[in-house]
Amino acid sequence: MRSLRLVGLVLPLVLVLPMAARGEDDLLLATTTSVNDSGLLDFLIPLFEEETGIVVRPVVVGSGAALRMGALGNVDAVVTHAPPAEMELVASGAAASRLPFMVNWFVIAGPEEDPVGVSEASSVIEAVHLIRRAEGLWVSRGDDSGTHRRERALLAEAGLEENGDWPGFISTGSGMGLSLQVAGERGAYVLADVGTFLAFRERTGLRALYQREEALLRNEYSLLRVSSDRFPKVQASAAAAFENFLCSRDTQRRLATFGVERFGRPLFRPLHPESCARGR
Q: Is-contact 121 130, C-beta < 8 A?
């Protein structure tokens, strides 16, 4: 497996970011790169700050790193898309709650010419097998993000080596946006959340070759409030305010239309307040 380590020196510094590095009432939020790269973070934060007066200090990393920050009590809240790991964090007591608030679906993007015929696959597992059998170029984030974890799960489900075992498998060790750009430059296939794919589509030249609402491609985003019982420095009230904001009818309505003006379609599907409340 080839590796393009683009941000390897940044992550350890982020993981030890001190709670003191913000104002007394600020919300320190660890959030996955896809929420940032899709433009959603820049859309939501000003709305929340205007509504509550709480300043958000985002730390943009992969889901794995964000969850580790939550486990260490280094942030007040976490937005990720790695449900099994999120549930483990709640079960451990490091997170006080998990709130699913929106979903979209992963896609397999690739070059327009689609050399291995991914667009003709009958399932995402068949699509993965087509790429592997042809030893096609594949770009992996390789960063323990929610997308990377789903990629590993898909490869395992297909009976393949989770970290790739063919010469065309490239690991960037970086976020979704940069990994999409690498795939575009290499003419490679890549698993991406549809929101970031659409946001980067014009600059990469990639096409969504396989996009279906299959269970294996469901991409659920959740907010986790870090436990102030375990970590007394956590700003529990700021995290609770952000949770209420995300689950409010106004925010859910905005989520339902985010991306329509620019892309002609929404990038996310909100989990309406009633469903949202059941996830608390």
A: yes
* DSSP classification of residue 70: H
pTM of the model: 0.86
Contact between 153 and 107 (Cβ < 8 Å): no
Phi-psi region of 205 (alpha: psi -120 to 50; beta: other; left: phi over 0): left
Helix 63-71 / helix 146-157 crossing angle, nearest 10 deg: 120
Phi then psi for residue 23, to 5 deg, are -70, 165
Q: Is residue 148 helix, strand or coil?
A: helix
Query: Which pLDDT tens digit goes with each residue over 109-160?
Result: 999 999 999 999 999 999 999 999 999 999 999 998 999 999 999 999 999 9
Both tokens assigned to 72 = 């260490």
Q: Which helix (H) or strand (E) holds 236?
A: helix 236-247
